[in-house]
Design a protein that fits this description.
8-stranded mixed β-sheet, Rossmann fold, two-stranded antiparallel sheet, 8 helices
Length: 230
């Protein structure tokens, strides 16, 4: 599978780029310059806080797991079982190759789509979904994914995305207006969502909000939500 595919047959092509070369580059980029390393440290800090808000779940589905960036943080809880899933076989291969063998003993790799997760109903305590939902521009696609998450989790969902109400979202909107005036089409594979919209979608999909965590309050578009299945 090289694309995220809805059960209706609609294809979302943004993930098609993750061939072995791109998967390796994705692994390397968070270990690059100082800015990337500091950003990664903040991401890991938010992940720890979110897992605490979620009650330190024992059985976690990391989807999409990408190149395994959060595996060490997820494994800090000694009794936690980790199912590491991704739509891309290349991503999973890179993640497994770079993983400490002792850590890998606690991880079950799984190639699957977020729209049709190859797991039974309510089979995990929590789903840990980082750096995916901001790629989904259509509300019906987001709802399809959220409903599938609700089917598989028995308790919580941790999810990150871009929201408005901050400086970076304001700046991005101004840049898009300028591009439009010049007749240039913006590349739409990442989307800033109104907070009211996404929170309404969470409720419609059957989740209540436990907590909100901002990467940099009032500055960054990145927000992590901790949700509980209603």
């Amino acid at each position: 599978m090289s694309r995220l595919t809805l059960q209706s047959g609609i294809e979302l092509p943004f993930s098609a780029k993750y061939d072995p070369e791109h998967a390796q580059a994705y692994h390397d980029k968070h270990r690059g310059d100082l800015r990337r390393r500091l950003s990664n440290l903040r991401d890991q800090q938010l992940a720890r806080r979110a897992l605490t808000m979620a009650g330190q779940p024992e059985r976690v589905l990391d989807l999409p797991c990408g190149a395994g960036r959060f595996w060490r943080t997820l494994a800090e809880h000694p009794g936690r079982q980790i199912i590491a899933a991704d739509n891309s076989a290349a991503m999973l291969d890179v993640a497994v190759r770079h993983c400490d063998p002792r850590l890998l003993e606690r991880i079950r790799p799984l190639q699957t789509s977020a729209f049709a997760i190859d797991l039974p109903d309510q089979s995990v305590d929590s789903i840990f979904c980082m750096r995916l939902l901001h790629h989904i521009g259509q509300p019906e696609h987001r709802l399809a994914m959220l409903r599938e998450f609700r089917r598989v989790t028995r308790d919580t969902l941790i999810v990150s995305l871009w929201v408005d109400g901050n400086y970076m979202a304001w700046r991005r909107k101004r840049q898009e207006v300028r591009r439009s005036r010049r007749g240039k089409e913006a590349s739409q594979n990442r989307f800033v969502l109104p907070r009211s919209t996404v929170e309404a979608e969470f409720a419609f999909a059957g989740f209540e909000i436990v907590g909100r965590l901002d990467f940099l309050p009032l500055q960054s578009m990145w927000r992590v939500y901790v949700l509980r299945r209603c």
